[in-house]
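Researcher: Let's do a round of design. I'm pasting the structure tokens now; please hold your answer until I've finished.
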């Protein structure tokens, strides 16, 4: 389910990646947290250097921070002491455990064929009415198909409609969405789709 070359890239680049000044809290984090009850329990997928998890804890939430690479987990705990643990998307097997699932710039590394399974696992892990945030790089005229980015990481590059259909098929109700222009770590500027969905 996870792309080995992408995981290896993050393992090797963790020291530089987590030291980057660009690794501050995600742009939509606080607005997402504002939607949650004060005692919400949040699963973070792809926690990276732990910045977002640290912000969640600072705001009083309970957090289960996870990442698919051991090096990122170590960095998150060294830098922010967030209690991060290693878990790939295909290892998520919780049932109705979390009030929210935060997945900033990580599900975009799954092959498209594997995304429905991951969405099903996220849906199952949420309590009824639980919220899920994710953002994805969108395909465009110059990059219409999934494949490796300039850094060698797998990127699924879906269309907005394709992505929304997969979430609907997984049992999610779309609450809010926004398309914006942004750079990835590979320096390529493209459209992104960020959205919040709810488990019905």
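Researcher: That's everything. Go ahead.
Model: Designed sequence:
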């Amino acid at each position: 389910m996870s792309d080995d070359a992408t995981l290896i890239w993050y393992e090797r680049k963790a020291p530089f990646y987590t030291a980057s000044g660009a690794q501050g809290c995600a742009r939509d984090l606080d607005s997402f947290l504002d939607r949650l009850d004060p005692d919400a329990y949040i699963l973070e997928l792809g926690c990276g250097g732990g910045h977002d998890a640290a912000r969640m804890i600072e705001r009083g939430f309970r957090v289960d921070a996870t990442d698919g690479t051991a090096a990122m987990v170590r960095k998150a705990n060294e830098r922010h002491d967030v209690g991060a643990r290693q878990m790939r998307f295909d290892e998520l097997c919780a049932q109705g455990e979390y009030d929210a699932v935060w997945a900033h710039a990580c599900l975009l590394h799954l092959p498209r064929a594997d995304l429905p399974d991951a969405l099903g696992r996220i849906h199952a892990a949420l309590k009824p009415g639980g919220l899920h945030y994710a953002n994805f790089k969108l395909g465009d005229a110059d990059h219409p198909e999934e494949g490796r980015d300039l850094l060698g990481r797998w990127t699924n590059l879906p269309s907005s409609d394709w992505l929304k259909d997969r979430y609907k098929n997984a049992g999610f109700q779309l609450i809010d969405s926004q398309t914006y222009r942004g750079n990835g770590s590979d320096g390529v500027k493209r459209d992104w789709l960020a959205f919040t969905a709810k488990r019905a």
